[in-house]
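2 proteins. here.
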Amino acid sequence: MRPFNVAVIGYGFAGRCFHSYLVGLAPGLKLHGIASRDPQTRERIVRDRHCIAYEGLDDVLKDDAVDLVVLASPSAVHCEQAVAALDAGKHVVTDKIMCLNLEECDQMLAAAERNKKLLAVFQNRRWDGDYLTVKHLMQSGELGTVRWMELAWQGFGAWGGWRGAAEMGGGRFFDLGAHLVDQLLTLQNSPAETVYCRLRRDYDASDIDSEALIVVTFANGATGIADLSGMSAISKPRFRVHGSRATFVKYGLDPQEKAMIAGDIDSAVETPESYGTLHDGKSERQITTLPGRWRSFYENVTEHLAGNAPIAVTLESSRAGMQVIDAALKSAATGEVVRL
């Protein structure tokens, strides 16, 4: 069986360091081409990636050899590009955030359904080591019943490029909020019921969000908080999870991204100094972080396309995340709690 040919749309940070790299590591996938509007970038693509350099999405969709289109483009064009690719008979993986609102999400889902093609969202942080560790602690019962969890991702300063423009879907709310909302929903595995959000835009030279706080309540009585900041020089814990038996606290980010940018994702190792701690009210102990594995996303895509496995990031879960994001935007605009 020949490998599935993949074309990546966009060769910025996500297309270069994430998608084209990880596709190249997945057995059963072949990096067939990359699209860029910039002639110099296309020269670099041919030289560095040894694949076809397309001028744009239209050229990719005309290529019958392409099986799977990966959208590493600005978030604001994901819906339009995904629908066009699906209608052209291609499978699609889109970088997160999937799109900008629930209406766009439903358009994408309808296109996947009518064309009977795969549509999957790149939620690589379901394979972060810290997320997998929290999931294990919840499933093993060490935390007890978890009814409160806080996830934070913070930094200092506005982003540049298209991620620094609100009209393109830039800002931490969309980019990182997509990860944290997805992690909250998949860890709780209970329907979200209400959403409240506060957004701030305090940068002098940028219209993207500087602060975002999303509060989600679940049908099982749990509360999840996603705290995003571009004006925090001192970070909060990445995970703070309160259970009836213990509390788990974990700082820092998964090491895979730095290792991947350096060219060897398999060298990513978290040091003991970064391990989280489990507190039971009397004592605390260090919890070794489980190894993360971003490779698993595209390996699962390959297995699914070959008919050997269900897709891990389901459309049902992706739509649930977009429903929360959509409700959060409405809440931020009105100042009211939105009931789903």
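next one coming up
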Amino acid sequence: MTDTLEPAVRKRPRHSREPEALGRHVASVVDDLQRRYLRQAPAAIAALAQLRQAVNAEPGTAGLDAVWLPDALIEPELRSERAEHPRATPSEQALHTAVTLFAIHQQSQREQRMHTPGTTFAVACQWLAAVRDNDETVHRRFAAVGTAATYPELVYHVRNMVTQLRAAKIGFDYGVFADDLRLFQRGPALVSGLTGADHVRALWGREYWRASAGPARPAATDPDASDASDTADPSTSQE
């Protein structure tokens, strides 16, 4: 079995979710970066390179994402705490993680859109298993994502999956992904006692295994990227 891509399919995937306010903001940010990167705009190439270097840094230290989160999207209950302490809120952390991982995902992809609205992270992982000869390896890596006990552990395992998805040219919806990252960081609910992480694990697990019974995946071809050249970046360090 090969990693050959099928022709692009324009209809919305079966297993899709709409982003919330944070997700819509993240989607607009990465969509703008993606379009400019595919056209080889020097500023976008430099921005993605800087974001890749900041993937393990604290939110705001990249010098780029600190200005991307409007105050209206920051959790109201954390406003006073944010004013007194420098630590990132769940929304700020989710924004930073999503945008920096997108920068890794889109790296060197000249004709493919790695931000693909309508395809969730879990469904993209299942499509990865479908194009790999050894799908058990993908299953194990996805299971590691599902057993992450802390947010840093989750990001570590997701980053490993993102590099595999990049190699297979499979994208996903970074807006919905950011919403999921935000939810993962929430504490237990008063009624159910379940944490946000519990909800995300269950949601991703359902999407992953349900997608295995679905049709072949649509490709993430960018119809707006026809003007993008296959030449190398001006700087190899910013590829």
